[in-house]
Design a protein that fits this description.
The protein is of the alpha+beta class. It is built from 7 helices and 24 strands.
């Protein structure tokens, strides 16, 4: 019922007329543009803007002759259902009756701040229908049925579109992606993709550039959320890295260089995203004991509750409390490698000794347990139980594509590489 366009009109006063502006302006702009190109030597035609109110005739529905108005509002933080209904045009009595109906209140209980709500309200202030997109990517609606209301929920039909963005680093990767209008989810993927090649904690320099091609999900003309990165490029002063997402016939997917080499390393460079190194590997003055001692790991400063990722595939051999480490997780990896994650607030649900984990899986959360003066993660990397500096280790790449997979990969990569080239050429044109 709520998707019908029949009987929808817009009021001519205030904000309800704003959506008409592009529709009116577009034809006017086309007329002006048509006369913008004149032959050489001819006098330009004088033009001026004229604003004139439009007379709108409401569409009548049914024998009652009632007009239906399409309304839209955003449910904000500290908002109430009654206040929202008032902004949508429902009168006070109508809102009060809705709020006292358990069935009618169901859609309001699932509303989250920032949600856009759409509604149809008649000229008498009676709500005809109301609907919005939930965080489960379903459409939850409330429709008038006789003198009562009934709620419905159905799967939303989302549209996938390919977005292309690029930017330049001035302070940090996160700040640069924000300035370029790139969603945080895409920025995090970008750091993960190139995390084995670029140390974003130490190697990032002003002037480094990046480009990304990614999918975004849309509904009713709005971007709902970002999805997978399809291709990306990161250029520093030293090298340029490119990545292409490829999924084989068995469903196994990953990021590869244009030549088919796997970008994933056996170990991630860092167990945290967009954090900062607060204490490196080597001799330092212990912040609690106030003695010069060897620091056998790397400390990353991050807010309490930040997710900690397993840097490689492995098995949990310890998850509990251990003296100065506080809450500690120890993972054993193939080839005599092991990693330590200390001072955690708590562990991921289900994590226990013997559980297998995969690279990038969240295993715990940053805290301040044990000998810690503030929330941070203490990370150790060991080879045959000997501590090594994880920031200087050279990690091997994971398995590349098989020769039989390369033709399919090339077919996937060519159009994506063309998009990256287009972004790069556009940047060069702007610099000239």
């Amino acid at each position: 019922m709520h998707n019908s366009r029949e009987g929808i009109v817009a009021r001519s006063e205030g904000r309800r007329l704003r959506w008409l502006a592009p529709a009116v302006a577009a034809p006017l702009f086309g007329v002006v543009a048509a006369f913008a190109t004149v032959q050489q030597g001819l006098e330009p035609v004088p033009a001026k803007l004229v604003f004139e109110p439009l007379s709108l005739s409401p569409t009548q529905i049914g024998e009652s002759g009632l007009s239906i108005y399409f309304q839209e509002g955003v449910f904000s933080r500290n908002d109430t259902p009654g206040a929202l209904l008032g902004r949508l045009g429902a009168d006070g009595d109508e809102a009060a009756s809705l709020l006292h109906s358990p069935r009618a209140m169901r859609p309001f209980r699932l509303l989250l701040p920032g949600t856009t709500v759409q509604a149809k309200v008649d000229q008498a202030g009676r709500l005809r229908s109301l609907w919005y997109l939930t965080d489960r990517e379903t459409i939850l609606s409330l429709d008038r049925v006789g003198e009562g209301f009934q709620s419905f929920e159905q799967q939303a039909e989302l549209t996938r579109r390919v977005e292309m963005k690029s930017g330049e680093v001035k302070t940090s990767l996160f700040a640069a992606t924000d300035a370029a209008g790139i969603p945080d989810g895409v920025a995090i993927q970008l750091a993960d993709i190139f995390g084995g090649e670029v140390d974003f904690h130490r190697d990032l320099r002003r002037g480094d550039r990046f480009a990304v091609v990614y999918e975004a999900l849309h509904y009713a003309g709005r971007t709902i959320r970002s999805a997978r990165v399809l291709a990306a490029e990161f250029s520093s002063r030293k090298r340029t890295f490119r990545a292409i997402w490829f999924q084989d016939a068995s469903g196994r997917g990953g990021y590869y260089t244009p030549e088919g080499e796997n970008l994933r390393k056996v170990f991630l460079r860092s167990p945290l995203e967009f954090s900062r190194v607060t204490s490196g590997f080597g001799i330092r003055r212990h912040p609690i004991l106030q003695q010069w001692r060897a620091h056998q790991g790397v400390d990353y400063g991050a807010p309490t509750g930040t997710g900690v990722k397993a840097t490689g595939d492995g098995v949990a051999v310890f998850a509990g409390r251990r003296s100065g480490y506080g809450n500690l997780i120890v993972l054993r990896h193939h080839g005599g490698f092991s990693t330590y994650y200390a001072h955690l607030r708590d562990f991921a649900r289900g994590l226990r000794p013997g559980k297998r984990v995969v690279q990038g899986e969240t295993i715990g959360y940053v805290g301040q347990t044990g000998w810690a003066t503030g929330p941070h993660l203490h990370y150790e990397f060991r080879v045959q139980d000997q501590n090594r500096n994880p920031l200087t280790m050279v990690f091997q790449s994971a398995q590349p594509l098989f020769a039989v997979e390369l033709p399919a990969f090339k077919r996937t990569a060519e159009p994506l590489l063309a998009r990256l080239d287009l972004l790069k050429n556009s940047e060069l044109a702007l610099l000239e």
